[in-house]
Amino acid sequence: MTGLPHSSPAELRDPPTALDEDGAMIRAAALAKYRIVDSAREAVFDGIAELAASVCEAPIAVINFIDRDRQFFKAEVGLGVDGTPLETSLCAHALLEDEFLLVPDTTQDARFACNPLVTGAPYLRFYAGALLRTPEGVAIGTVCVLDYRTRTLSDVQVRTLRVLAQHVMAQLEHGLASRQAALAEARQRAIVDNAIDLAIVAIDRDGMVVEWGTGADHVFGWDKAAAIGRHAGFLFTPEDRAVGRLHQDMVAADRDGRARADRWHLCRTGRRLWCSVEVTPLTGRDGRQLGYVLILRDRSEQHRVGTALKVAEQGQRWAQQAGRLGLFQLGADAILHATPEFCRLFGLAPAATLPAATIESLILPEDREHAAPLWTADGLGDGAGVRELEYRIRRAGDGVVRWIAHRGERLIDGETGAFRIAGMVQDVTERRVATDILAGNEQRYRALFEAFDDGFCIIEFFDGPHGPLSDYVHVEANAGYQRHSGIAEIVGRTLRDLAPDQADDWIALYGTVLRTGEPIRFERYFEQAGRHIEVSAARVEPASRRQVSVMFRDIDARKASEAALRASEALARENIERVQLALAAGAIIGTWFWHLPTDRFTVDEVFAAAFGLDPALGRDGLSRAQVVATVHPDDQAGLAEAIDAAIARGGPYAHQYRVRRADGRYYWIEANGRVDHDADGTPLRFPGVLIDVEERRAVEKELDRTTAALRALTETLEQRVAERSAELMKTEEQLRQAQKMEAVGQLTGGLAHDFNNLLAGMSGALEMIGTRLGQGRLGDVDRYLDAAQGAVRRAAALTHRLLAFSRRQTLDPKPTDVNALIAGMIELIRRTVGPAVTVETSETVGLWTTLVDAGQLENALLNLCINARDAMPAGGRIMIETANTWLDRETARAHDMPEGSYLSLSVTDSGTGMSADVIERVFEPFFTTKPMGQGTGLGLSMIYGFAKQSGGQVRIQSQVDVGTVVRLYLPRYDGDLMPSVDHDGTRISSRAGGGETILVVDDEPTVRLLLADVLEDLGYGVVEAADGISGLRVLQSDLRIDLLISDIGLPGGMNGRQMAEAAQAHRPGLPTLFITGYAEHSVVGNGLRAPGIEIMTKPFAIDKLLTRVGELIAQGRKAA
């Protein structure tokens, strides 16, 4: 590429660490001026990086700035970091170039070959960067692209990178200019705002106030909000308004450039102020007059010095008394000049002067060391500035201790040079008492806060990168909160830092509390702390603080108690239910009561009768040993263990075992009871019942047997399911095949009629030509030839459409004019849907190009039209529309697509429509609303897959009994519609120029005859072959062959493509022209052709055939 610095040995320089220190300092100063290093990401720079990556087709693009010890990435694509150390920088080398650095292969460039980013991950192989240079000529960084493979850039891509670099610098300069302008405006505003003695007011040409300085607030009492938008006449007295004084000033300012006057003006209270006024015209930067500036200074004191002075002195005395504020001056002679209020604060009688030692004597001894120097001559010192201190005094007269706030400033007399201290004192006792109380309360609160076992914290919301109120920080937290949450040192940390994965949920939860003011309470298990926590949250008022208080309470113990209670209740319910069932079935065989301290076991008469006991003995009581003696020997140990456990723990008891009853047989029973303890835990009572479970045990045994049988059946069920699944998969495959045939079946009726018409036209025209030739009437031959050729062309067009629709090709996206595609197949659509359906089109002028497989798109459009027809059994209207569409981020997200430019193709019908639940399923494979046998349910799913594979989307809108709109979104393609063919400016001749010989291979004699005659008429030698084997023999001979023309489908076991491939071993690079009745892409399989191979589909025009032959032979000559 011309004009770019490629890597070469002569251009090798030292690594970037050799950049001189002076240059680094200059560069660092320039970067500091722009404030760019470590700045946040900005959309405009991100867009530039993305555009660089897109235009240069590179996986990595960076806008970087070279600092003294590192490079900072302001924007990047494909890296995911914001900078790297300078020693690994590739971009630093670009600073040594004039404008641009291009390195096609970094491994072959000594500057980069050993760089760890080249020798290791990410294995960079290509670099190109345009320099970022300031207006002063300082190189500060680059806009660069990188790739993992060796490559280069086109001139357009290089120019684009340079333009993008210029755009980056323009953005930096714009930002710098904006900051400087804002700073200048701020300075001007500060000047105006700080001139509080001057009322500066700007008015427009109509006298309306447009600006109101801070000094105007001070002078006139109106604030800015009240003044702006009003006519400036409100500042003038009634008599001046009557004579139009403001207008007179404006006229004088226009005439003389400035108008001055001294007169009365009105303040907000209606009081009159004597002001000096100056009015000057206000012009903009373009010289156009915007209005006028009024500068007014209050000179009322010169008119009312005496009265105003008295009023001021009285007002000062009132202010000092109300605020307990005394003023003083202390000279080098240690004599105080003080106001009356000063004297009253210290309990002294008012006096014009008094010794400073008097004040010093009133200061409490513990405060005198640091406060007494303020009242001595030495306290003047040599320094300057303000001295502030608070100390205690014992007031003269009543002896009350008071806190005094002292503020004194060291001043120098301009005439004598003498020093003095001027200042004020104020009684702040109440404030100090309140502060001490507050401090004590705060200390007690803090102790309680930290000792509180429950967790407590205050969180404060703030606006973060994720939006308003999108994060919060922990501003306070006690030890209990950190213990319950499982997070140490939580104060000062944000939620997104602590738990980024859970942040959105917690922010939404507490954010609702902040917005609504409604408190919440809930329970949650915290894995960090390993415990159950009850959380309560409430807003901290006022809401403007953006704070929420959160309390955590450990409820593990309560949870455990609740679980134990639930378990106990469940067991009790189970026992009650068991007893109730036993009662209903008559299964209870007795009750007992066991008094544990005396081991006295009493039973009822039912119990005694069942076990053959004397009822009297049952009433008097048995021992535990006597009862256990009736238990089956094998069950006695387990029963004893169960009884001991129940007595030890207390509460419910249940156990099954066998006992010997009165008939001498052993029966299964279940004992249900409860052990009661007294307050100190001593076992007291053990009541219960016996239930006959013999029959239930038999049922359980039978259930076990049945379960085993079911398990055996389940083991054979898997094999049955597998066999049924195989049958289902076979049926699905048959359905898919049926889908492929469905669309062809839809075409059959209309196309059969059209082909019969075309064949009739061709055969009739040929018969008439034969008749006229026999009659010698040659004048009508041309007319019949034109008719026959027209029928042939229409038949060829239909054939091409059918081949494209039949999808005898792989997906082959090409730039496609969709309007032209619709126009080319509209007649096919109309014939397919039939005369009962009207087909209309609405095509957008200037429709964008899209990159799709045209055949697949035709297939999709035809299927949509067939579906629309089927939705209108009584006929109707189909509208096919195209449009250019831009989808913004929100709309694209709703459509599940990237934002950007799309071409839309929609098919609208006036049919029966679909309900919402049907629309949700229409893209599912095998889902169909058509009657059995009339649809496979694969059509829309295939259209959906085609649209997604093409980078687009399909959306459906439908309303029952109104109709349906199916809209395909296809991405816009910005390239050329049809790639141009470069013939090097050479005119291709279709006549033989040097005895060229052409081999024609076709199994159709008529085609061979036609081709041979046409080619021989142009001077070519022609060799014919009827099959692939014969053609290959000719190609393997020594006969001169300059071009191979062959059909694809040939008999004899070798097709045309196989023959051509086999011939390459003997005649490498032989130009080949395939002629076929199939679609072009069925010849090459994957959609790609080797150089020197062309394809034409039958039928074809003779002149196009001859042009193609001439081009191929010309290419063969060049190659030779």
Automatic annotation (TrEMBL):
Enzyme nomenclature, EC number: 2.7.13.3
Keywords: Coiled coil, Kinase, Phosphoprotein, Transferase
Molecular-function annotations in GO: phosphorelay sensor kinase activity
Keyword Coiled coil: yes
InterPro entries reported in the protein's UniProt record: CheY-like_superfamily, GAF, GAF-like_dom_sf, HATPase_C_sf, HATPase_dom, His_kinase_dom, HisK_dim/P_dom, HisK_dim/P_sf
Residue ranges constituting the Histidine kinase domain according to the UniProt record: 750-974
Taxonomic superkingdom: Bacteria
Ranges where the PAS domain occurs: 184-241
Domain PAC stretches: 255-311, 387-440, 653-705
Reaction equation(s) it catalyzes: ATP + protein L-histidine = ADP + protein N-phospho-L-histidine
Residues annotated with 4-aspartylphosphate modification: D1047
First-level EC class: transferase
Coiled-coil annotated residue ranges, if any: 696-741
Residue ranges annotated for the Response regulatory domain, each copy included: 997-1113
Protein name: histidine kinase
